[in-house]
TrEMBL record:
Residues 310-350 are annotated as: Disordered. It comes from Cellulomonas iranensis. The keyword Transcription regulation applies. The keyword Cell membrane does not apply. This is LacI family transcriptional regulator/LacI family repressor for deo operon, udp, cdd, tsx, nupC, and nupG. Keywords: DNA-binding, Transcription, Transcription regulation. Residues 7-61 form the HTH lacI-type domain.
Amino acid sequence: MAVRRQPTLRDIAAAAGVAVSTASRALTRPGRVNADTAERVMAVAKELGYIPSASARALLSGRTSTVALVLPDVTNPVFFGLVRGTSARLRESGYVQVLADTEESVEVEADTLRKLRGQVDGAVLAASRLTDEQIAAAAADLALVVVNRTIPGTPGVLLDTAGGMVQAIEHLAALGHTRIAYAGGPATSWSDRRRREALVPAAERLGVELVVHGPYSPVRDSGPAAADAALAAGVTAVMAFNDLLAFGILERLDALGVDVPGRMSVTGCDDIFGSDLVRPALTTVRSPVERAGRMAADLLLARLDGDGNGAHDADGDAQDDADAEGAVTAEPVLMPTDLVQRASTGRPTA
């Protein structure tokens, strides 16, 4: 039995008695054609069972209905909430989300953003390792929203982990710690630089000697080196860049028979799954990551809805959307964090 051929846009145009370009506008942007014509074309499309392909929709409307979420490490549990938040909000608005893992590589991230141009409508760029200039250049060619960065002219969401780290050092100082180490993150991490900048004056204000170590890769395997450096420095507490690094520190201290928190208190950042399950349970900075994902998606959708970048219809006429880009705030949305106190911190006893 012969398989019935799916109707094409040309079939719809012929049946409705209009040009192909008119049919495309009637189906994708009905406000740009006569109301009676749009109604006739849509009725014919429904009668014939016309279903436009994703590629056809992209060609006709200049849109792919796809958004990329670009992450430095998809295996890091902290990003799970971000994935859920952006995906849920984008799905509500008819978009499909794709993930891009840049593997903590500046080169891979830059190449990924170049390749995404024309393949997606926009991207949420999280914890970018690129310079401000590189991100600004990418934003000139692709609708971008950044998470945990501030780029002039580019909307963003900022989790106040620097403020959370200040809460952590205040907590440790209140417990009686006077010499504290900070085990920093990657050298290319903007968040790490921001935390260091916040911790130095906080330590001075509190009368605490801050010892900065690193950079460390934000993974569990980097924990032993960070733990050894903290012990060699003679500190009584170590603040880790993230929970994964803190997990590795706890494992190393346990292997060495170092009492936590009596000999060494440990804090993390992110409050990922498992932070309350390790022993001792980890004191850490909690961030509203899923809510940040939804906010980032909202900012990107607002930018796309007001995008006036001159995409073209199939007949070559420029789409005449009003450019509402200026209505999308470029000031980052700051989301507060809070310190979750658990058993890995206490008064120094040795």
